[in-house]
Amino acid sequence: MQTVQTLAPPSGGQEEAVPAAGASRAGRLLSLRRIDEAIGVACMLAIVASIAWGVITRYLFPQPAAWTFEAAVIAFGWLVFFGSAACVRWRMHADVDALVAMFPPKVRRVVFIGNWLLLAVLFVVLAAMFAWQGVIAHSIRVVSLDIPRSVVYAPMSVASILMLVQHLLLAPWRDGWQWRASSESAL
Amino acid sequence: ESYQLRFSTSQVNPNEPVVKVMHSFADRVKERSKGQLTLTIFTGDQLGPQKKVNEMIKGGARVLSVTDYGQLSQFVPDMAVVAGPYMFANPDEAKRLFTSPVFGEMSTRLEQQGLKLVMADGLFGVRHLLASKPVRTPADIAGMTLRVPPSPIMLETFTALGARPQALPWGEVYNALQTGVVDAAEANYGSLAGSKLYEVRKVVSNTAHQMMFAAFVTSTSFFNSLPADLQKILLEEGRKAGAELTAATVASDKAFAEELKKNGVQIVENVDVKAFAEKAKAAYAKVPGLTPGIYDKARQALAH
Amino acid sequence: MSMLQLWLPSVLMLALLALQTPVTWSMAIAALSFFLMNMGEMPLANFAQQMAEGTESVSLLALPLFVLAGCVMNASGITRRLLHLAEVLVGHMTGALAQMCTVLATLLGGLTASANADAAMLSKTIGSQMVQRGYGAPFAAVITSSAAIITALIPPSIGLIVYGFLAEASIGRLFAAGVVPGLLLAAGLMLTTHFLATRRKYQPQRASRATASEITQAVIDGLWALSIPVVILGGTRYGIFTTTESGAVVVIYVVLVALFGYREIRLRDLPEVLAESVRDSASVMMMICAAAAFGFYLSWQQVPQAMSGWLAGTTTNPVMLLLLINLVLIALGTAIEGSAALIILTPMLLPLIEGAHIDKVHFGIVLITNLTIAGITPPVGGLMYISSQTLKVKMGDYSREIAPYLAVMMGLLVLLSVFPQLSLWLPNLLYGTGGVQ
Ligand code: NA
Ligand code: NA
């Protein structure tokens, strides 16, 4: 059985530690490079806290809090998109290499470059579309919290930009666009 | 040019009055427009829940959505009064509000938000209370933990009545009642029968705290892009559909009440509705975003 | 509407998938292509709205919470103790860990309502232990994701509640009807595991049965860990919190046990554990979001309707009809997510079912079983994504390992379809045969 490889820096290839233990390798959580993960962690804490608050108020307070699920769902959305930016860096978005592995090296390289460019374009489109959707939703009110619904979408636009940044920082040109098999972290 | 419009509802059951009305509306529009405007019906939230579909429509999507005034108050907060507690004594009184300048002004604001009302005034149901004991006066629900939909007006209504409203998603209601997370729930007869909530609570008290009206909304920009004759067909058929829905709901509520009784539900008729209405009035002052005085204006419109 | 508009996004998704574009982004790009072709009917910004929609579900909110609970349990020695207990109890059996996984899933099935949350929990705990002990990651992913299906049948079950709402069938009867099929599924999985483990000579964990004192010691050592299911069970059964809320309560309880009960983890280790749970949740959820956007295209173009419409004209024999419906659902289930299919298909299939005089509760069990199995059939399946992603398994390897288990599940589906009594015996016993349909 192979050792798990999750953190695959561009120079990579050799075995790395598992994520929890490999934290020092990944850098401190409170750093610019891991800002997406730090935001995700804050969202996770917010989800736990707000749902727990809903349970607590139901038993201890005369009126149960009404906004807790709504707040948790908004934090959930941010968690997924910011966490997804971190997954771009950690190469955790799974792919299937069964067919491409059979191609000759030159074709593989073309496919690899094509995929990299395609995803860069996708992240730009996502950032733009979330910004646009934020504008559309700005005059809609979130039901219980009574804030504009753009608070749901605008941070997702920022997260999409971070996906692009992490994608660029993978810098595949540094090793001459060398094709990679599905990492062990992939399906 | 011919146009295709997707017609979306949360309702699943083809025998629900609103689904039947959707079909007859779609048929008449197609016939009168000689096939120029066709509607395809999507039941059961296939295109997504109302909140999401309404947002798509605001963005300009070619969809006609069956929605309610609780949902529309997210776009125009004042519309919450249409879904407010004890606003109308009967559907005829409601008709006066829907034809009043107060409502006309609200629907203009909704139109500026990107949502065009094609039908505004179809009665969808009257909400009552489901619990394990009869509720006849506000004192009977004091301190009762009660599931409400996540809408400010409903939360404020039951807070004013002295209960402990708990906003929970509809999908969790059955389990929440069964395990006792909440003591009670509230809905119209149709939903109470369809959701089988009577398997876990056996007493329905006719509190009639909310008269729910359904609306059909589509995108303002799409509506304005239609030729004048098609616009006219939609609005005229929309008016017919509203009256049709009100009649069908009144009739089907009787059938649903029978179904509930057949399943061992006790229906409590002698509820002190006046006492409830008096106490619930405080809710109108607490809902966020309401224009000051909008409740009084709406009441005045009802009087005429 | 042209054939191109109808099929291009599907073809594009498969092509990108084959060309090693990540699964998530293949579905997202395919969905985007649909919005690009339909800009006349809705604004392109709706693409973003559809991507975000997957996160606006309160029932999926349980997923990150149970993932986090699993991460904390792994990092703090709670999992180790639970597994040690399992080991002294059944460690002498062949393929002990895999069998434990099914047993635990059956027990968990009575606690939780979401197969997705259970797959997250099982793969994070038992799954990773199986990998460490040489079972092979693909096998571990297959058994954890397959076992999670039991949750959907043994009450409480989100799928059965949704079906009950959609079909206007009694939820109490549906819950009772799921018990026997759920246990049958557990038995089927355990037999398959036994067969495979024997053939592959998976070693037992220990040479001989544990002594009474060893077992006592393990139970005492595991008391804190054993109290966790008691908290979930007690809390949800006695109405202190809902199923979704139980996720948050369990996280807090597990953290307290880890910090003050076993004291193997320090407060300053928690941020990295949290970060791990964020990454694990996000990679799965983003896939579910993209699948939801792709599913919107299928709904908008009424692709499932086209398939079920074809069914209507074929047969009125109830058994044949059920088997045919199963075939179509399996074909659809490879490509779309179970919960989406449930909402779209239930109202369309019901008239057929009523026409053929098939019991709605019986059909509900067949439908939920089938659509939950869809979660483990490649290339689109939530349970498969969750287990494979957690255990770092490739889809190709997963597909090979799933084959024997899928075969057993197909067999079970045929049994459930042909013998309504397997589903209806218990509800008829509890509620009688008359009354509510
Ligand atoms: Na379950
Ligand atoms: Na599948």
Write the layout of secondary structure elements.
The complex is a heterotrimer of chains A (187), B (304) and C (437).
Chain A: H1 23-26, H2 35-60, H3 68-89, H4 105-137, H5 150-169
Chain B: E1 3-8, H1 17-32, E2 37-42, H2 50-59, E3 63-68, H3 69-72, H4 91-98, H5 101-112, E4 115-131, E5 145-148, H6 152-160, E6 164-167, H7 173-179, E7 184-188, H8 189-194, E8 203-219, H9 220-225, H10 228-262, E9 266-268, H11 273-280, H12 283-286, H13 294-303
Parallel strand pairs in B: 1-2, 1-3, 5-6, 5-7, 8-9
Antiparallel strand pairs in B: 3-8, 4-7, 4-8
Helix pairs in contact in B: 1-10, 4-13
Chain C: H1 3-18, H2 23-37, H3 46-53, H4 62-75, H5 78-90, H6 96-109, H7 115-132, H8 137-153, H9 158-167, H10 171-199, H11 212-221, H12 223-237, H13 243-262, H14 270-300, H15 303-312, H16 318-335, H17 338-355, H18 360-373, H19 382-391, H20 395-418, H21 421-431
The complex binds sodium ion (2 copies).
The site of one sodium ion has 6 residues of chain C, from helix 16.
Q: Can you describe this structure?
A:
The complex is a heterotrimer of chains A (187), B (304) and C (437). Chain A is mainly alpha-helical. Chain A is built from five helices and no strands. In chain A, α2 packs antiparallel against α3 (68-89), α3 (68-89) packs parallel to α5 (150-169) and α4 (105-137) packs antiparallel against α5. The radius of gyration of chain A is 20 Å and the shape is elongated. Chain B has 304 residues and is of the alpha/beta class. Chain B has helices at residues 17-32, 50-59, 69-72, 91-98, 101-112, 152-160, 173-179, 189-194, 220-225, 228-262, 273-280, 283-286, 294-303, and strands at 3-8, 37-42, 63-68, 115-131, 145-148, 164-167, 184-188, 203-219, 266-268. In chain B, strands 1, 2, 3, 4, 5, 6, 7, 8 and 9 form a nine-stranded mixed β-sheet that branches. In chain B, α6 links the parallel β5 and β6 (164-167). In chain B, α1 packs antiparallel against α10 and α4 crosses α13 (294-303). The radius of gyration of chain B is 19 Å and the shape is globular. With 437 residues, chain C is mostly helical. Chain C contains 21 helices and no strands. Chain C has helices at 3-18, 23-37, 46-53, 62-75, 78-90, 96-109, 115-132, 137-153, 158-167, 171-199, 212-221, 223-237, 243-262, 270-300, 303-312, 318-335, 338-355, 360-373, 382-391, 395-418, 421-431. In chain C, 61% of the residues are buried. The model of chain C has no long low-confidence stretch (mean pLDDT 83). The chains are: A mainly alpha (187), B alpha/beta (304), C mainly alpha (437). Chains in contact: A-B, A-C, B-C. Chains A and C meet through α2, α3, α4 and α5 of A and α2, α3, α4, α13 and α14 of C.
